[in-house]
Structure formats: C-alpha cells, structure tokens
Amino acid sequence: MSESVLKKVTDLLAKEFDGQAEVFRGETHVFLSPDVIVDAFTEIRDQLGFEMLTGASAVDYYPATEPRFHLVYQFNSYSQKTRFEVRVPLDGNDPECDSVSGVYPNANWLEREIYDMFGIHFRNHPDLRRIIMPADWDGHPLRKDYPLGYEEVQFTFNFKEIEQRKPRPKD
User: Fold this and answer.
1) What is the chain's pLDDT, residue by residue, as a tens digit (171 residues)?
2) Residue 67 CA to chain centroid, in angstroms?
3) For 92, which DSSP code?
4) 106 near 100, Cβ under 8 Å?
C-alpha cells in the first residue's frame, strides 16, 4: 500500500470533513460524522481515486449508547493499489445515516443488509426493506441485545448433558 496516497486521503478528509485518522495494526481508519458522508464519499471517489466500495457493515458496541454503532465502509483503489476504511459512529437510540448508494451504487444492497441485521435506518435510500430476514420479522438479529434462542448448542464437552435434555418425538 502506498503511504503517500493514505497521507493524502487522511489529510483531505481531516481538512474538509473534520475526519480523525487512526492506524491500527497497519490498517488506516478515518472516523467521519454521519452528516458529511455523502460529500466525503463523493470526494473519495472523484478526487482521491477510490473507484470501489468493497464492503460495508456495522459494529454494535452495546451496552454503550454514545456511540453504540459504527458503520464501517471499506474502499479500494486498484489504480493506486491502496485501501482504507471509514468508520461512522452512530447514536444507539435511533441510529440513522444518509445513504451513499447515489455515490457508490453497490451500497444499495450493503445498506439493506445493515438495515435488516442491525436496524440502522438510511435516509434517502431507494429501496430500504429487509433483504435476508422475512418482511414480518421482529427485531434485528446482529444487535447484541437481540434475544438468543432457547436451545443450547451441542459440543463434544457438553454432549451428554444436552443429549439428556433433548426433546424426542413420542412413539
């Protein structure tokens, strides 16, 4: 990866969008506010040459509420052989952010998955509906406060205990 390209990225995002850069284990992350990401992502694509949004996901830091979530966007520049990540901290009470599907069209599907699994709402999204879970499903399964199932997972160390409690069909 090109250190000069990453320096240019972090300098521009810090200067124009008040971005905070961080390097962790050799990976560069820039923290941006949710209200500037559409403009920042347009700059990342047009001025900095990151032609591909390779991934988007979220992280839940429950029980923390400020911020509870981080949206995580990964960018790649094939021409510059460089990649980096943007993190967008969101409040836990009503997580909401602008959609970037107008800047990177593949964000449409990625944001739908984040909405479905984490319940983060994307303003101005062209088709924000569930993509994995059924439309009538209650809750968002990747949130840390989502209730877990009642059945304990069976492993080799607890095989006998689970086998004794396992329900059997009646003869």
Assistant:
1) 578 888 888 999 999 999 999 988 888 899 999 999 999 999 999 999 999 999 999 999 988 888 999 999 999 999 898 999 999 999 988 899 999 999 999 999 999 999 999 999 999 999 999 999 999 988 899 988 887 766 666 778 888 888 888 777 775
2) 14
3) S
4) no
* 3-165 CATH fold: Beta Polymerase; domain 2 (3.30.460)
Contacts 24+ apart (CB under 8 A), 109-114: 110/53, 110/55, 110/56, 110/57, 111/56, 113/57, 114/56, 114/57, 114/58, 114/71
Which are the contacts of 15, defined by CB distance < 8 A and separation ≥ 6?
none
Contact 158, 150 (CB under 8 A): no
Specify the pLDDT at position 165: 80
| Cα distance between residue 162 and residue 71, in whole Å | 38
C-beta separation of 2 from 82 below 8 A = yes
Q: Is 94 helix (H, G, I), strand (E, B) or coil?
A: coil
Q: What angle do CA 159, 160, 166 make, to 5 degrees?
A: 85
